[in-house]
Amino acid sequence: xxxxxxxxxxxxxxxxxxxxxxxxxxxxxxxxxxxxxxxxxxxxxxxxxxxxxxxxxxxxxxxxxxxxxxxxxxxxxxxxxxxxxxxxxxxxxxxxxxxxxxxxxxxxxxxxxxxxxxxxxxxxxxxxxxxxxxxxxxxxxxxxxxxxxxxxxxxxxxxxxx
Length: 162
Known about the structure:
Layout: H1 8-46, H2 58-83, H3 94-97, E1 99-106, E2 109-116, E3 124-127, E4 136-137, H4 140-145, H5 152-156
Antiparallel strand pairs: 1-2, 2-3, 3-4
């Protein structure tokens, strides 16, 4: 996918969708953790015997294992189709903390608009190598110009994105 520089308004328009995706992912993650906790208990009680079909707790172990795997696949699909396919990125630790970065341009360089689940709109940005700790408040001028008036060659310099 070619690199895309989001404007602040484009990023803000995507927030309701991202909120829904991240909340669904959170519910799925909680369910995975619950299943894994129960699986751990069954494995502690029975050891490897719980894997055998004749074990009285094997059907529960098998069903919980299958459900956890399906939920993990659901989370992976949500990440791919619900987030990454829209041209945004998830920084390290982003899934646990509901963080999303929108690539944009500012003063001839790539930067990220930074959003966190629960924030009503984009209020921060950071340099590509700064991460969440380097978030800066978004000024009205930046909000108006980010992703709009940069050198068109900048996007071509990163055809695979950043």
